[in-house]
Fold this sequence. Notes:
- By secondary structure, the protein is of the alpha/beta class.
- It is built from five helices and six strands.
- It has one domain (5-173): Leucine Aminopeptidase, subunit E, domain 1 (3-Layer(aba) Sandwich), CATH 3.40.220.
- It has helices spanning 33-42, 44-51, 89-106, 126-143, 157-173, and strands spanning 5-9, 19-24, 61-65, 73-78, 111-114, 149-154.
- A six-stranded mixed β-sheet has the order 1-6-5-2-4-3, sandwiched between helices.
- Bound molecules: adenosine-5'-diphosphate.
- The site of adenosine-5'-diphosphate (ADP) has 21 residues, from α1.
Amino acid sequence: MKERLSVIQDDITRQHVDAIVNAANNSLLGGGGVDGAIHRAAGPELLAECRGLHGCKTGEAKITKGYRLPAKWVIHTAGPVWQRGNNNEDQLLASCYRNSLKLAVLNEVKTIAFPSISTGVYRFPVARAAEIAINEIQIFLAADDSIEKVIMVCFDETTFRYYREAVDRRILES
Ligand code: ADP
């Protein structure tokens, strides 16, 4: 399992993979953080295609082309806003990873990069988000053999450490 999932510290817009995942908002009409970076790197055609998608419910995912990005596809998913954990945030975050991976398989994606969904402006605690993300990805990969590589792309070092630790813990436990 280890070789199909890696954690790196980098900018997701620079990844040469079949698909990158965007931590979008419900409107899909662009925002700050990783969403803003992806739209800047992809160019205005991305926003034009997103306008035709009519938004995305929290926990769900939609796909567009990658335009000027090295990635062929962008999978947009709307993560939950952290509200003290009483609003189904854990399950909704897990759905983001699961539904993004399902959409990837439907589009014959072999390599995919995720950002740390919901842990920026949406304030989801990073340690908790990392556990959920790594758990969902590993469960998915165990049941699917079409995806060859999943890369968790963390922007800052603190985030990187939490995801790295979540992977190391699971390897030790297995
Ligand atoms: P959300 O609204 O889902 O919380 P944010 O974009 O605010 O999304 O933050 C999610 C994570 O994405 C944060 O860890 C943030 O540091 C990170 N991030 C921001 N820009 C990039 C980038 N270019 N590549 C990868 N991760 C990024």
